[in-house]
Write a structure and sequence with these properties.
Layout lengths: L2 H4 L3 E6 L4 E6 L15 E4 L10 H12 L23 H14 L3 H5 L8
Antiparallel strand pairs: 1-2, 1-3
Helix pairs in contact: 2-3
Length: 119
């Protein structure tokens, strides 16, 4: 049975500049940040916001979202659970960007690698 088909879940939207995240309905409309009124980025169902003071973690969140990746643990319909890897610190992002340049991968492919040695 599809998990997301039976219940309407709220998803996470993030404003990286203000370091805020909100759970809002997934209705396809543009959601604005409550502080700066800029459009918020869709982060997925399983996003866990770092503390506002954690600069390295927010750098990683921004890189992941700008690359077009989301924080999802379930497949789109919610039937199976396959947690995807996402870097947590700026150092992990930099390591994956070096791998992307060396192996000619896209940034999204490199950021999704669990271990850069796997490339």
């Amino acid at each position: 049975m599809c998990t997301y088909a039976m219940v309407t879940y709220k998803v996470h939207y993030v404003c990286v500049a203000c370091r805020q995240s909100h759970k809002l309905p997934w209705d396809g409309t543009e959601h604005l940040c409550t502080r700066c009124r800029a459009p918020m980025l869709f982060a997925g169902h399983d996003f866990a916001a770092p503390r506002k003071t954690k600069d390295r973690h927010w750098t990683a969140v921004e890189a992941v979202l700008r690359a077009g990746l989301r924080y999802e643990g379930f497949e789109t319909c919610g039937c199976t659970r396959e947690p995807k890897y996402r870097p947590r610190t700026g150092a992990q992002v930099r390591a994956r960007r070096r791998v992307a340049a060396r192996e000619e991968l896209t940034e999204a492919e490199a950021l999704a690698l669990r271990d850069p040695a796997d490339a």
